[in-house]
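assembly run, all chains below
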Amino acid sequence: MSLVFAGIASHAPGITGRAHLADPKVVHEFHGAFRAMGERLAAARPDALIVVAAEHFANFFMNNMPSFAVGMAERYQGPIEDPEWLGIARTAVPGNAALSLRLIREMMQSVDLAYAQEWQFDHGVMVPLHFLTPRYDLPIIPMNINCQGPPLAPLHRAWAFGEALRRAADSVPERIAVVGTGGISHWPATPDSGKINEAWDREFLERWQSNDRQAMLSYTDEATYRDAGQGGFEIRTFVAVAAAAQGRGTLHHFRPIPMFAVGCTIADMSIGA
Amino acid sequence: MSLYQVQKFLFDINRERGVQQEYREDLPGLLDRYELTAEERGAIAAGDIGLIYVLGANGQLLMHYAAFLGMPWAQYIAAMRAGVSKYGPVRAGLYHMTTAMHEKVAGV
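ok done. output:
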């Protein structure tokens, strides 16, 4: 069929794990926006959801770190973290190995991937699924871009990954949705946790909404690290979704929530030709 | 310094229940499997989150180890600040502290 839905969302563990420590009104508004995205996703009637994530050493480590990886299993588990710490119960999440295989084969025509027949979801996948598919009844195809362990693939390679994802989605009969998860500027898991460069975030989101490829790819890792922290490297997932959707974005929610350590973002993108 | 080995230890203990069990039952034996400096080994043996942070451990690994040690979020943040105060700036990696010691950007 084709790509039928594209969006981006935050995934910080505090969104669920530290929700009780933030302003309830602000949390309610953000969680509501997250669930509303789930309703738009469901309305697109996808057969599978690709989650483009930036995992945090749950499955991949510096002994053998893939720049890009795609899950190819019938079933996944998560969260790998302490469920009490994350505020999400451990559960099985359905996959679709045969669909993964077809997607991978097509993507490999233009990008090099690792595949994984085992994959434990960390908060980067589980937090979005908690809101988007809370019954865990939609097959998930996890895809990962290394945003943690440098050297990192350059942004233009994340764009190429997104283009390959789109070509693969268009090549299968199933209706495919894609959601990229990550932070924009943030300094998570440091004493600076909660620091957010809102101006930088809004500028990035402008570039993302207008799908300005050149502007999105113009960030250097050095500048991103300086202005947006090590968490800013996760823009790769959002860039990949823009490349896949080839449309224009609509920002539904953005608000810095320091207790969640990130500017909490929910946005969709139209599917371009 | 063997930051990679410190992080490998953190990766293993975060993921593997068997390693967590070994940590509780035979910590010296567990640590023998990693090529650690005396300072790194001492930091892990003491559960000194502040020093492990200063040594350069990736926060995405360290925060789960802190949770494993029973540290609530605010205590984890405080332990990293205390580490910088006691041992000096972060020596390696990407997880440097960029705020002033008195800044508590998320209120903790």
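Chain A has a mean pLDDT of 97.

Residues 24-43 of chain A form the longest helix (20 residues).

not gonna interpret more than that til we talk
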